[in-house]
Amino acid sequence: MNSQPEARQSPSMQPPPIGMLAELTHRCPLQCPYCSNPVELTRKREELDTETWQRVFAEAAELGVLQVHLSGGEPALRQDLETLVASCAEHGLYSNLITAGVNISRARLEALADAGLDHVQLSVQGATAKVNDHIANLPGAFDKKLAFAAEVTDVGLPLTLNSVIHRANLHQIPDLVELALALGARRLEIAHAQYYGWALQNRGALMPPREQVMEALELVEAARERLKGKLVIDAVVPDYYARLPKPCMNGWGRQSLNVSPLGKVLPCHAAETIPGLEFWNVRDHALGEIWQESPAFNAYRGTAWMPDACQSCDRREIDWGGCRCQALMLTGDATQMDPVCELSPYHDEIQTLAIVDSRRDDEFTYRRFSRQPA
Amino acid sequence: MSADSDTHLDSNAGGVPALAERDVVRIPRGVRLREDKARGGWVLLAPERVFQLDPIAQQVLTRVDGERDVAAIVDDLAQAFAAPRDRILADVRAMLADLITKNVLEVA
């Protein structure tokens, strides 16, 4: 977060992380095909217990984390969510609840607010019941979300509306802006699907055509300008059609960390797709030790790991080489430059792939737990 | 999902009307001002955003209590830093208006 380049010779010199994504559970009442969770989901009996999460929050605050994003799956399926929110508040951590908003009663919402919850981010899968409930594969979900949003603002908590955008809801962007305003949200996230986990499996059903993506970007830009001071609109851009890679996580192991339901600490939620990386678990190590010393965090930190073309690029500390998981998926090598970059030898290939997928007519593969092993 | 960091506060307030001296500004629920011991200095924490405050912004925002009006904050700063009031007023107005545009401050 400093603008000066930082020395990275020694692992013990890492500046502390700002944000932590706490994936409390993989359980979820929704089955969205764009879910960023891994295809192999963690089961309830394997989840970290309350005491361990409390220790992790204490260690995170000590380490320098400022904001915690309580996520999942659906974090409200954890019976101890109020206790975990209180633990964040006790340690001065800004707590953000990322929820589908279909299973939190008024009484529970008030209990969460009393425990010190700072902010609610509610997902919507579309701007109408028909689209929303089809994508979530849960009839009645949209009406529950609307009722929940009204309760959030009524309780006095600030609300962000988040919608993951893809071929099945891209046409609803203006409606999503209107919905955010009508629900009293202070912030709207228009997040184009990123193709990892379940979204990667569903790319043929989700990838939008290029022209529609460009049109959507303009719509969002115009709405942002028009609603300045009224509604903050943040956009996550669809990178397959881009010329420059996204600065994934603002650099590997640089500002954020992610704790999985199992307790594994990851530089990003998809990092486990990279074979050969050694992730440490909060059951075995203190969080600060993991941030500083764990092999996975040090694997792609800074710029030393980059291919020559990236190391000599002016944007090496802007893009941070893009996304390692995407480099692996599309080139077979995680140390390659992100194929989204126009300088990548794979750049044309990924654009073609997006165009081909955008013309397919695949059905959704809904996010589900695999069958219980015998 | 990552926390953005805005290291600089723009002085350009965009489309927000200029603040009057009698306006009272407050930090809304969902935004928190706190010390950042790990990195030094103070931060304003907002949804998915961390604003690192420079020493001037810190001096201004620690005086934003939802009770004092802009004039009182400016008077206090002018006295504390023995600086011309007009200049402080212009700077404070621009800074507060910018943060209002970003939805991290509101007029009470």
Explain what you see:
The complex is a heterodimer of chains A (374) and B (108). Chain A is α/β, with parallel strands linked by helices. Chain A has helices spanning 50-63, 81-90, 106-114, 129-136, 141-155, 173-182, 197-201, 203-206, 210-226, 287-293, 295-299, 308-311, 324-331, 347-358, and strands spanning 19-23, 67-71, 94-99, 119-123, 159-165, 187-192, 232-236, 256-259, 265-266. In chain A, strand 3, helix 3 (106-114) and strand 4 form a beta-alpha-beta unit. In chain A, helix 1 (50-63) runs parallel beside helix 2 (81-90) and helix 3 (106-114) packs across helix 5 (141-155). The termini of chain A are far apart. In chain B, strand 3 and strand 4 form a beta hairpin. In chain B, 33% of the residues lie in helices and 19% in strands. Chain B has three helices and six strands, in the order E-E-E-E-E-H-H-H-E. Classes of the chains: A alpha/beta (374), B alpha+beta (108). Chains A and B meet through strand 2 of A and loops of B.
Count of DSSP-assigned helices of chain A: 14
Q: DSSP strand (E) fraction of chain A?
A: 5-15%
Gyration radius of chain A, rounded = 20 Å
Q: Which percent band covers the strand fraction of chain B?
A: 15-25%
Estimate the global geometry of chain B from the Cα principal axes.
Answer: globular
Summarize the structure.
Chain A has 374 residues and is α/β, with parallel strands linked by helices.
Topology diagram in text:
The complex is a heterodimer of chains A (374) and B (108).
Chain A: E1 19-23, H1 50-63, E2 67-71, H2 81-90, E3 94-99, H3 106-114, E4 119-123, H4 129-136, H5 141-155, E5 159-165, H6 173-182, E6 187-192, H7 197-201, H8 203-206, H9 210-226, E7 232-236, E8 256-259, E9 265-266, H10 287-293, H11 295-299, H12 308-311, H13 324-331, H14 347-358
Parallel strand pairs in A: 1-2, 1-8, 2-3, 3-4, 4-5, 5-6, 6-7
Antiparallel strand pairs in A: 8-9
Helix pairs in contact in A: 1-2, 3-5
Chain B: E1 4-6, E2 25-26, E3 32-35, E4 42-46, E5 49-53, H1 55-61, H2 70-81, H3 85-101, E6 106-107
Helix pairs in contact in B: 2-3
